[in-house]
Amino acid sequence: ATPPFGTNLTEPLERYTRFCQTSSTTGSPLRWLDTAGSWQWMVDRWIRVFEASSVGAGDRIFFAFSFGPFLGFWTAFDAAKQMGCLAIPGGGMSSAARLRTVLSVGANVLCCTPTYAIRLAEAAREEGIDMSGCPVRRIIVGGEPGASVPGTRAMMEALWPGARIADHHGMTETGPVTYECPARPRVLHVMEPEFFAEIVDPETGAAMAPGMPGELVLTNLGRHASPVIRYRTGDLVRPLPPGPCVCGSHELALEGGILARRDDMVVIRGVNVYPSAIEDVLRKCGGIAEYRVEIATVRSMTEIRLQVEPAAADSGITHRLETALRDAFGLRIPVGIVEAGTLPRFEMKAKRWVRV
User: Fold this and answer.
1) If you count Cβ atoms within 10 Å of the first and of the last residue's Cβ in the chain, which end, N or C, has fewer?
2) Of 162, 179, 182, whose CA–CA distance to 170 is shortest?
3) Helix, strand, coil fractions of the chain, as percent rounded to 5
4) Which DSSP letter does residue 137 get?
5) Contact predicate 21/240, CB 8 Å
């Protein structure tokens, strides 16, 4: 309503020193400004993410990130430096160049999106890069819910043997919000000392009963120069019952991480279909290099169909995928096969759902 910077700035404009903007997955990008103090608050949240993943001084962290205006791993990079890690920027490099850098400098931690972790392993095969001695032992991902999708997480673990996958999530508007529980994979803890979190009915905005799934609403308590108060994130979550976690935390725990974005759900013949649910089915089936979901309106009805790029020749993949999708959703979802290299690859957030 009030471009370019909105109305929630609490300092004179000349005191702001950092600019970033949303990735505009849906709609126009939001521009966000931070003072040095508010930026440091976000850096401190990333230090907590690293600590929960057992990353600390002396580790060598490679950031497979473009370092463009998207907030992404900018704060993580600054956090790594402050912790005494070797922070290695990977902007402006091809996938093959990034892999060779990881190997040559002995990077033992990788930060990227789940999609790009899969893409790097694919690039290693294409380039004939031997990953048998890969030093990476931690892969910290964000930007999309892949690491909390069972099939996608299993795929990453298979592609990066010996590496532990750690999830987290945040938003440009809020900063880093969660870290993965050290004791329970696919459970994210909200950093409640720094956020007041609520879970509401996504349709009515009414508070949900404890333990009931709903939309995550956040108030950040330390980003004083650009605060948000009761911000509707659009993220759908399933909270675990209150009480101490086996890891020792008393912070709000979200089972399965971010389940979906409220805006991403499509209703197909009365069935709610979420992108993460489709991805889980496809990854569990295996043999898929990349895929795309096409959404169309046919005779006033919303329909979806899939384009799939197999990792190798597989005459039975269409039948196998259509059967798995029918079993999961009770729907007939057509699957088409495309040639190798047809579908786009992604470095940051993947945009696999398109309207046609």
Assistant:
1) N
2) 179
3) 25, 30, 45
4) -
5) no
